[in-house]
Design goal:
Length: 331
């Protein structure tokens, strides 16, 4: 590992099937960044228990998420892929950082407001302090860049604020991280309600596409996608559904919105929606095939993440010791 490479960190929650939104907004960048940066990626199982999980299903989802990251092309030899709860430094640093985070700033987090409205019967303290754990994830690895979708921007800002505050008191302890948000696809919207983010927790399964959906399901979901009544295939503020489909098509084909508009000149929404579905299915097909090989060999999967856990622990321990010393703990 070259010392002068910039450090990248990101995590994903294993809270269900991963979606096309996760893929376009974040995971595509995770893979692309590997060749240039020193990357650390984790399955954020600690974050996922802020909403209730069914244990057997949850365990399966953790395996499945790890297998999917490998299927996407994350290279565990050149980079680090691990499971968050296996590296205890995350919880330890989160506690310390929570003492440098104000109640008021956490209260402003829109994700907390949304999630506590959605899970009104379980507004737990973890849901509230979620961004502090996320700051710990990022700061432990002295990360320069954090590839995420637009919905995580506010959490990145608070991580930067916490790091800046800590450094101000104790000197240069943490690298101040920058978000790395894609220009196209930073916010993939629901196929059924394009004013809402595409999310795996949406009860309407036609509103989101899973990375592991079959070709038939993908095409069916795109065929049903909400558009509008004027039949023009172009981006526009008054055309959220069509704009979203153009964004998705652009992200998977690399074509610009102008090229796409020209390509479908004179054609109807029906043709366009099938083309988007086919392009998405085509992009996901090799990932789905590789996924099968990783998920069917648990032993290999465990070996890979355990090796990652160790690498991550080593890097995390270094930062955590420094923090403890600065705070004044006796080591
Ligand atoms: P999570 O698990 O909800 O999502 C993983 C990544 O996918 C992105 N994403 C989207 N991007 C575009 N359009 C969408 N519809 C869409 N849905 C999800 C998310 O922005 C994210 O990048 N808190 C994080 C996980 C986390 C983390 C971290 C991220 C824990 N620790 C440290 C970065 C650094 C989360 O819940 O992502």
């Amino acid at each position: 590992m070259e010392e002068n490479k910039k450090k990248v960190l990101s995590c994903i929650q294993p809270s269900g099937m991963l979606t096309l939104g996760n893929y376009i907004g974040a995971l595509k960048n995770w893979v692309a960044m590997q060749s240039e940066f020193d990357c650390t990626y984790a399955v954020a199982d600690l974050h996922a228990i802020t909403v209730r999980q069914e244990p057997a299903k949850f365990r399966q989802q953790i395996y499945s998420t790890a297998a999917l990251l490998l299927a996407l092309g994350i290279d565990p030899e050149k980079n680090t892929m691990f499971i968050q709860s296996h590296v205890s430094s995350h919880s330890e640093l989160a506690w310390i950082l929570s003492c440098y985070t104000q109640f008021g700033e956490l209260s402003r987090m829109t994700q907390f407001k949304d999630k506590s409205a959605k899970h009104a019967d379980n507004v737990n303290v973890g849901l509230f302090s979620y961004p502090v754990l996320m700051a710990a994830d990022i700061l432990l690895y002295q990360s320069d860049l954090v590839p995420v979708g637009a919905d995580q921007k506010q959490h990145l800002e608070i991580a930067r604020d916490i790091a800046t505050r800590f450094n101000h008191i104790y000197g240069d302890v943490f690298t101040i991280p920058e978000p790395y948000i894609p220009k196209i696809g930073a916010r993939v919207m629901s196929l059924q309600d394009p004013t809402k983010k595409m999310s795996k927790s949406d009860e309407n399964i036609n509103s989101w596409v899973a990375i592991l959906d079959s070709k038939d399901d993908i095409i069916r979901k795109f065929k049903r996608a909400v558009t509008d009544s004027d039949n023009r295939i172009c981006v526009g503020e008054d055309k959220p559904g069509v704009s979203n489909l153009i964004g998705i098509y652009s992200a998977v084909t690399g074509k610009s919105a102008e090229v796409i508009t020209a390509e479908f000149e004179g054609k109807g929404y029906g043709d366009f929606k099938i083309a988007v579905g086919e392009a998405v299915a085509e992009e996901l097909k090799p990932i789905q095939e590789r996924y099968q090989t990783f998920i069917s060999d648990k032993k290999q999967l465990e070996d890979i993440y355990r090796q990652g856990d160790e690498k991550a622990f080593y890097a995390a321990r270094k930062t955590l010791s420094k923090v403890k010393k600065k705070v004044g703990f006796v080591l």
